[in-house]
Amino acid sequence: MTNGPRRVVLITGASSGIGRATAELLAARGHRVFGGVRAATTTRPLAGVELVPLDVRDDASVVACIDKVGSRAGRIDVLINNAGVNLVGAVEETSIGQAQALFDTNVFGVLRMVQAVLPGMRRQGAGLIVNISSILGFIPAPFMGVYASTKHAIEGLSESLDHEVRAFGIRVVLIEPYYTRTNLDASAAQAEGRIDAYAPQRLRTAAVITRDTNTAPEPKVVAEEVLRSIDGPYRMRRPIGRAVLLNWLRRLLPARLFEPSLRKAFALDPSSKGAAVP
Fold first, then answer.
1. Domain spans, the chain
2. What are phi and psi of 10, to 5 degrees?
3. Which residues form the catalytic set?
């Protein structure tokens, strides 16, 4: 059972991966969990989790979901923004339409959900918003640059929001996993405008990302950190695994020391042309 009070939790993207593992764990620990999924009638049932239709890209769907949870449970104590999609390819190869679609889910989807739950949380004088970020929210991601930019956006949004809503008894948490073994990368869209000049490096970097994802921890590791963020003492940033060290290195090391290890990690050519990195 939970170490604290039983909370009403709504999690987006609950049909698979981190969302599914988190919903199952929170329900098993005694929280009342609602799982937002795009296809509620065809999603495999989750023990103890009430599935509700939700498409974070659609304003009406978001409002209907919040209303449904409110009518069933009377309140929402915790919102977990987990729904997200990936996109692989160089920035130059990515169409504006693809970038807009990615932001619509990963950033504006979060914004829609936050704006929908805040009135109720303000009325009840309490609430917790947990945003699933990534190590790519604070380090660069060659050949996933647009995806990384959505996670950087979530980091800035979350920190700013926390200052705005703290006076109402509401806090915001950032969960920052390292690679996690989910189908997010396997199902990732590919940039539409393939450019031959990028092909050799893109393939090397993609192979490294696939290798690291296939050997990464299961989603339960992230779910356990989400549970700690709900039941334990408040801490805004919660990096997981190797992300803890990377977070410190990114903040403390100058770029000229941090970047060589980053390039090596992504199998990038160690040589660089042009101006030296300051």
1. 8-265
2. -120, 125
3. 147
Second CATH level (architecture) for the domain 8-265: 3-Layer(aba) Sandwich (3.40)
The encoded tokens of residue 125 equal: 């004088």
pTM: 0.90
Instruction: Using alpha carbons, select from 175, 174, 223, 173 the residue that is nearest to residue 24.
Output: 223
Three-state secondary structure of the chain: CCCCCCCEEEEECCCCHHHHHHHHHHHHCCCEEEEEECCCCCCCCCCCEEEEECCCCCHHHHHHHHHHHHHHHCCCCEEEECCCCCEEECHHHCCHHHHHHHHHHHCHHHHHHHHHHHHHHHHHCCEEEEEECCHHHCCCCCCEHHHHHHHHHHHHHHHHHHHHHHHHCEEEEEEECCCCCCCCCCCCEECCCCCHHHHHHHHHHHHHHHHHHHCCCCCHHHHHHHHHHHHCCCCCEEECCHHHHHHHHHHHCCHHHHHHHHHHHCCCCCCCCCCCCC
pLDDT tens for 23-56 read: 999 999 999 999 999 988 888 999 999 999 999 9
Residues of the chain with pLDDT under 70: 1-4, 183-187, 216, 248, 271-278
Taken in order 43, 97, 92, 276, the sign of the CA dihedral is negative
